[in-house]
Amino acid sequence: MHTLTHRTTALLAVFVVAAGLTFFGISNAVAAHPAAGQKPTIVLVHGAFADGASWNPVIERLQRRGFTAVAVANPLRGVGSDAEALDARLAAIDGPVVLVGHSYGGAVITNVKARSPKVKALVYVAAFAPAQGEAAAQLAAKYPGSTLGETLAPVPLSDGSKDLYIKPSLFRQQFAADVPARQAALMASTQRPIRDAALNEASGAPAWASTPSWFLLAGADKNIPLRAQEFMADRAGSRATVTVEGASHAVAVSRPKAVAELILRAAG
Question: Which residues form the AB hydrolase-1 domain (predicted)?
Answer without folding.
Answer: 42-261
